Amino acid sequence: MSQVATRKAPAGMLVKQAGPLALIQDPGRFGVGHLGVTQGGAADWISFRWANWLLGNEPNSAALEIVMGGGLSLETECEVHLALTGADLDAQLDDKPLAPNTSFTLTPGQRLVFRQPRQGLRAYLAFPGGLNAPEVLGSRACTAREQLGGLHEDGKPLKVGDRLTWQGDAPAVKQLPDSQALRMPATECRLPVVLGSQIATFSGRSLFQAFNQPWTVDNRADRMGVRLTGPVLNGSLTGIISEGIPLGAVQVPPDGQPIILMNDRQTIGGYPRLGALTPTACAMLSQCLPGTKVWLTPVSASQAQDDYRQQLTVWREV
Q1: Left (φ > 0), alpha (ψ -120 to 50) or beta: where does 109 sit?
Q2: pTM (two decimals)
Q3: What would the pLDDT profile of 224-259 be if each residue is shown by its tens digit?
Q4: How many Å apart are CA 276 and CA 131, to the nearest integer?
Q5: b/e for 238-259, b at 16 or more Cβ within 10 A?
Q6: In contact, 317 and 174? CB cutoff 8 Å
Q7: Which of 273, 53, 7, 265 is nearest to 177 (CA)?
């Protein structure tokens, strides 16, 4: 008489309370835009990579992107060493404050809770070797609008009862230099912009206002786009033939209020654009709470490329 062995689920971390938006993310999906599939991936890619760096993970290892906190509560079933970077969401480990940009150990039964933003908007929690989740089109990243990625391959955020497991065991623990972490925006910040091909279609007055007056981050902001409010921008174009949209595109619809398109943006669009934020500026904007003042600052494409290369070099040198 044969017996079927019962396979025990691997120990991991249980979601005891779900916050408003906790998503499994990696760098995102690339090479699939022609299918209408957006990039997705970690909005603050700099903090995301630092979280993996702290544990000695591969840079593209899947981690948890936690927006706002909102009472997200995780309880571990085993001893595990984690890393936390990005926003200060008033994280508590068994009711004791936990600072961002650090790594720490949890023992069985301990609970990690994220309450509310104190500075910044998105925190990143990295696990040894990266989180386990099915790959969809080459990525584990959650994209809610397209229902792709995540634990259940539906793009949805974590819910009560979900179990997180990871690929590694003993991480190579490191310490993040204070000078290297992305500074969370407080009340205002500057966002470098590479000017686009439609820049000359905006009036001179509008261009002066766009780059010499502050904009306010509106509460209409998500992973698809961030609306800015401020002076009304006018131009000779109300629409264009739809074309591909890059990360950080500064799109100006007919109401003259810019929308900066982020990781979960549509792949094509037909509104004229001032240009596109640099990758570093996109990371910074993703950490801006509603009401933050931002200044758009024109930079050349070569300046933006140099800045990006320098950021990538940092992880090889520290």
Answers
A1: left
A2: 0.94
A3: 999 999 999 998 887 788 889 999 999 999 999 999
A4: 31
A5: eeeeeeebbbbbbbbbeeebbb
A6: no
A7: 53
